[in-house]
Write a structure and sequence with these properties.
Low-confidence stretches: none
Largest sheet: none
Number of domains: 2
Strand content: under 5%
Number of strands: 0
Structural class: mainly alpha
Length: about 100
């Protein structure tokens, strides 16, 4: 379901958003998405838990790890996890499926 943007929203422009958090958000998701969040979710606190991406990182590690040190280094850098944690993932998912 699409919502109609309120008339006052036309005054929101990329150039007049002064809040640093909103500017950072805009640099990642774009102006239009940030504007929609400002309009429809004003006053709400939005928290994205660090654990929300873990199952995807686990699957990436399972798919990428080939037993070599270089593959572990790549996973450590991409996923911000430790080399020991990669071994725990391998042990936890012997069938190589998380998703």
């Amino acid at each position: 379901m699409s919502r109609k943007e309120p008339e006052w929203a036309k005054y929101i422009t990329e150039d007049n958003i002064e809040n640093e958090d909103l500017q950072a958000l805009m640099s990642v998701i774009g102006f239009e998405a940030t504007k929609k969040l400002m309009i429809y979710y004003e006053g709400m606190n939005l928290k994205i838990p660090k654990s929300c991406n873990m199952k995807y990182k686990h699957q990436y590690a399972l798919d990428t790890h080939d037993g070599s040190h270089s593959s572990r280094v790549k996973i450590v850098r991409e996923c911000d996890i430790t080399e020991n944690y990669i071994f725990k993932i391998m042990k936890k998912y012997p069938n190589k499926k998380v998703l």
